[in-house]
């Protein structure tokens, strides 16, 4: 037991932790220092969560729209929601495109949310471009971090929910259905990751191979080149035979034969006479039967 307790810190130290402070580009840091803010940000995730420093930054560019006395530099959830509601109205007034997911991620201290928001502000206010800004879809879960870890150190389903759903999110949005949808989305990502792990390392999960995988692949007896040559020879022979048949048919000479036909009027008259005699005989027979019945 003592040996395990001694090895545990060394094992955990070999795994990298989630960075609490993600570095910003050099030009963005210089821009923040040139604004002469009231508080020098050290932990971006914590210092920008209440929205006070963000309001102070926008005050340098829009002093007529931002009133700093209405913002409180506090850490409580009520102060955060109050400050960010005013900032959201300001964004709508100035037609600044800031996504709701980015604001929620900054409020609830999600990984890399505050850094991405600062980069967005830098691009909007200075009309400059930076190379490190994210162009893909915003994802504030620890999915990318979990992929970097070995399989033994990755989070379980319970740990995934606890790491990605904070207490402030539940207090800000107490709706059970909304929180249930968040948990279901996280569980879906976790199940996808587990399925990928089973594919990558089936021996660890004791995955038995299927019948198709157990079957032995036996190549055909003949070579492919021989079969291809046989097919080509057959096609050539068939084409040659068809060509000779056509040539032989071209040399055939046809001769027209005249056939003498009888007189059609004679045939029709004989047919009509036969039919009339048959009708006469039937009439005479009927008359004879009637005469016999009368006497």
UniProtKB/TrEMBL annotation:
Protein name in the entry: Spermatogenesis-associated protein 4
UniProt-listed GO biological process terms: regulation of cytoskeleton organization
Location of the region described as Disordered in the Swiss-Prot/TrEMBL record: 218-246
Main location: nucleus
GO CC annotation: axoneme; nucleus
PANTHER family: SPERMATOGENESIS-ASSOCIATED 4-RELATED, SPERMATOGENESIS-ASSOCIATED PROTEIN 4
Classification via Pfam families: CH_2
Keyword annotations from UniProtKB, A to Z: Nucleus
Record-level Gene Ontology MF annotations: microtubule binding
Domain Calponin-homology (CH): 22-126
Location(s), subcellular: Nucleus
Taxonomic placement: Eukaryota, Metazoa, Chordata, Craniata, Vertebrata
Entry keyword annotation includes Oxidoreductase: no
Record function comment: May play a role in apoptosis regulation.
Record's compositionally biased regions (Low complexity): 228-242
């Amino acid at each position: 037991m003592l040996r395990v307790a001694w090895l545990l810190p060394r094992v955990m130290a070999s795994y990298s932790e989630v960075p609490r402070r993600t570095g910003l580009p050099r030009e963005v840091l210089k821009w923040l220092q040139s604004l002469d803010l009231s508080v020098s940000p050290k932990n971006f995730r914590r210092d920008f969560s209440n929205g006070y420093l963000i309001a102070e930054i926008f005050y340098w560019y829009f002093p007529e729209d931002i009133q700093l006395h209405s913002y409180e530099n506090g850490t409580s959830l009520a102060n955060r929601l109050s400050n960010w509601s005013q900032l959201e109205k300001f964004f709508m007034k100035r037609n600044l495109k800031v996504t709701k997911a980015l604001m929620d991620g900054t409020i609830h201290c999600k990984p890399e949310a505050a850094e991405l928001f600062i980069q967005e502000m830098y691009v909007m206010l200075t009309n400059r471009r930076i190379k490190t800004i994210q162009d893909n879809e915003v994802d504030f879960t620890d999915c990318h971090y979990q992929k970097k870890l070995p399989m033994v150190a990755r989070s379980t389903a319970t740990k995934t929910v606890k790491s990605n759903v904070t207490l402030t999110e539940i207090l800000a949005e107490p709706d059970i259905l909304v929180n249930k949808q968040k948990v279901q989305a996280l569980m879906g990502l976790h199940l996808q990751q587990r399925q990928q792990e089973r594919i990558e390392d089936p021996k660890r999960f004791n995955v038995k191979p299927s019948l198709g995988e157990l079957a032995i692949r036996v190549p055909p007896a003949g070579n492919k080149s021989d079969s291809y040559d046989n097919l080509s020879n057959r096609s050539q022979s068939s084409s040659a035979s068809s060509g000779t048949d056509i040539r032989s048919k071209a040399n055939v000479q046809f001769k027209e034969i005249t056939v003498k036909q009888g007189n059609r009027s004679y045939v029709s008259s004989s047919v009509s006479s036969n039919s009339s005699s048959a009708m006469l005989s039937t009439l005479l027979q009927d008359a004879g039967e009637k005469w016999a019945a009368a006497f």
